[in-house]
Amino acid sequence: MKQLFKKRLANHLTEMMKYLRLVFNDYFVLALVFLIGGLGYYYSNALKQLHSGIWWAPLLTIGVLLIGIQLGRFATLVQDPDYVFLLPQESEMVYYLRSAYRYSLVLACVTQVIIWIVLMPFVQVTLLATTSDLFYLLASILLLKAIWLNADFARKYRVKSRWVANRFLFRFLLPLAIFTISFYFEYWVGSLLTFLIILFSTVNSWRWGIRPLDWRTMIDDENNRMHTVYQFFNLFTDVPSLNGSVRRRRYLDWLLRRIRLIPENTYLYLYAHGILRDHEMGGLYFRLTVIGTLFLVFIKGEMLPIALCLIFLYLIGFQMIPFYFHFDDNAFVHIYPVTNDHQMKNFQRVLLIMLCAVATIFAIAVIAINYTNVVTIIGVIVGELLEVLAFIYLYVPRRIQRGQRSRNI
C-alpha cells in the first residue's frame, strides 16, 4: 500500500507540475513580482504607523490565523474505482492513509510557517510578543493543523465516537479557543493545551485502523479537494477534468433582452448567454472581480493601485479568451449564415462590456480610497481605458489566431 501511494503521488505531482508551468508563465510571474513587492512595501510602511495596545490587533491576527489554518486538506489521492478494486485490501489501507497523512502534514506545515512568518512582524509590533512567544505561537499553529488532519483521518473510518471526526469542532472552535488563550492569556498555555490534545488524538488514532472504512465519504472528500485545486488552475488555463455546469439566471434576463435578434448578433447572443449561465466562466469572472476589488480597497498609494488595476484587468480578460472557442464543437453553429468576422466582432463586444464593467468597479474603489490623490485618479482612468482598448482590439485577435493555429495542428 505504501508503494501504491508513492506511485499515485508521483503521478499527482506530475499532473500538478504540468498545470503549474501554465499558471506561472512569464506574464503572471512578472505580475506576481510586482504584486508581492507592492504589498510588501505597503505592509512595511503600515507597520511603521502601528503601535502596541491596539484593541483590534489580536482580533485581526486570530481571524487571519483561522483562515490560514483552513489551507491544506488531507490529500488521500483515492479514486472512484478504489471502492471496488481496493475493497478486498481494506485492512491494509491504514498504511496507505498514514503515508497520505504524512504528505499532507508536510505541505500543511510549510503553508502555516509561511503565514506565521508574514504575521510575525505585525504581532511583534502590536502585541509586543517576544521571540519565545512567537515560537510558542508557531508550535500551537502546527499542532492545531496536525489535530485538524487527525480529525480528517478519523472521518475516513466508521468510528463510534463521531465527535473525533467533527470538522466544525477541530477546524474552527478549537483553534479559536487556543488562539484566544494565546493572545489574551499566555502563549505557552495555548501551546501546552494543543500538545496534550495532539497526544491524545495520536494515541487514539492507532485504533481507527481496525474499524471499517467509510469509502463513500473518503472518495467524496478527495473529489471535492481536487475540484478546488482544479478550480484554481482553471483561473489560468483550461482544465479538461473540470466538469462545468449551466445555471438559469433569471435575474440577468434584463441584460440579455437588450440583444437584437438579427443574424449579425448570432454569436453575441451565444456568448452573452454562455458566459452568464456557465458556472465556471461566470464564477471565474465574478471571483476575480471580487478579489481585485478587495485588494484595491485595502491598498493606498500613488502608483500601486494603478498597477493592481491593470494587472487584474489583464488577468480577467485573459481568462475570458478561451471562451471564443466554446461553441466550435457544436455542429449546429457551423450551418449558421455567419462569417468569422461577425464572430470576432461579437466576442470583442462582449469582452468590451465585461471589462468596462470591471474597470468601472475598480476605478470607483481606487477613487474612494485615494480621493485626495489627483495623479492616481487620472492615472487609473486613463490607464484602464488604454488597456481595455489595446487588449480587446490588438491583443485578443492575435491571441485567438494563435489559438486557432494550435487547434488545427
UniProtKB/TrEMBL annotation:
UniProt keyword annotation of 4Fe-4S present? no
Name the GO cellular-component terms: membrane
Q: Which Pfam families match?
A: EcsB
Give me the segments passing through the membrane.
20-43, 55-79, 100-119, 125-148, 168-185, 191-210, 282-299, 305-325, 350-369, 375-396
Alphabetical UniProt keywords? Membrane, Transmembrane, Transmembrane helix
By what name is this protein known? Bacterial ABC transporter protein EcsB
Organism for this UniProt entry:
Lentilactobacillus diolivorans DSM 14421
